[in-house]
Sequence to fold (446 residues):
Amino acid sequence: MKIALLGGTGDIGEGLALRWAYDTSHTVIIGSRDPERAETKAAAYETELDSRGVDDVSIAGHGNVAAAERADVVVLAVPPYHVGDTVEEVADVLDDGDILVSPATGMKRDEDGFHYHKPGVGSVTRIAANAAPEGVAVVGAFHNLAAGRLANLDADLGVDTLVIGDDEDAKGIVTDLAEGIEGLRALDAGGLANAPEIEALTPLLINIAQHNDGLHDLGVRFT
Amino acid sequence: MKIALLGGTGDIGEGLALRWAYDTSHTVIIGSRDPERAETKAAAYETELDSRGVDDVSIAGHGNVAAAERADVVVLAVPPYHVGDTVEEVADVLDDGDILVSPATGMKRDEDGFHYHKPGVGSVTRIAANAAPEGVAVVGAFHNLAAGRLANLDADLGVDTLVIGDDEDAKGIVTDLAEGIEGLRALDAGGLANAPEIEALTPLLINIAQHNDGLHDLGVRFT
Fold:
């Protein structure tokens, strides 16, 4: 499968790119608003993989539109306030049956800690769904992963990710992509309307990390 | 320490009562709006403990006011819409230094699943804090525990509970109470303002339980 990571030069994009390239045979394409930056980061990911003995993997870097055009699954690894714009930017090059994946969450910080900043339409995942063209399903996933741990191929994951969506086939495909990453378990959390509680978990994880020694870069396991 | 469980005849109250009575030497007092029901349930808990060889524990049942009057720590194990009223009902019998513990969360259900129903003041824990008398600290804890698993003394817990509050001493006492329960780890999640994300985790757990085989009565572990 061909996976484009738009915003794939950022921290969560880096982690997903490295893990998919290292653990699976999927083709990973890095997208960025700046094509040169995408190419540079893609080359850096290749170097990192090469240093671990994976020398037969080629990672391409492109502008977001060119990256999305080449992929079956497009991950919106961009800040929440760019999710709607990014979907609109690539909408014309998506084919029927392509899948958009939304991992972003809105947060604000005050003196007490981080808080979920719920968008007016209900969730960031819903922003993506509202902007998506007909025939392209949106699936929410990878919201609650610690970026540093994900990008460190020496780190055991041993965590869960929650998958939501209204298209069961698309959800199944994203679930398989998630479980292709070693140590990551994908759990079904229902339809897109269940996104806010998943997105709200990310600021909670940051609050816990800040208040407990030895729990930085933490994830969650449902048991 | 003397712990009153107001609403201690309900499912989360039952679980906390049994676990504290079984795992610790704290005195457990059951409170209910109906004193007779409190006495009946307290006797049933004693019978359950007796059947497990714990025959030296006495659990009293009282009306909510009488229960709160006898306790150092008062757990508001009541539905979210009764939290404010219950605090007001017992306010006069609380002493300086007593602690109120809020485990309740607001939820609503629609066709997609359960959702966090955020109160206007920000959280259910905040409702308790706003109603609490001067000198009585409010601590949020025990929001995300599966009641059935908690009440089943044969079940291993192996889960976390998140503790929040603006009074560090009170938080420390509730953390110790929580960790007195075998298999329960208490994590600091900061101040009371961080309550909404914790309360929102409860409907998420229910959604996950409904969509994944073998994950009913689930809890959460931060790792």
User: Anything to note?
Assistant: The two ends of chain A are 31 Å apart (CA to CA). The interface with chain B takes residues 110, 112-113, 115-116, 158-159, 162, 187-194, 196-198, 200-201, 203-205, 207-208, 210-212, 215, 218-223 of chain A (CB under 8 Å).
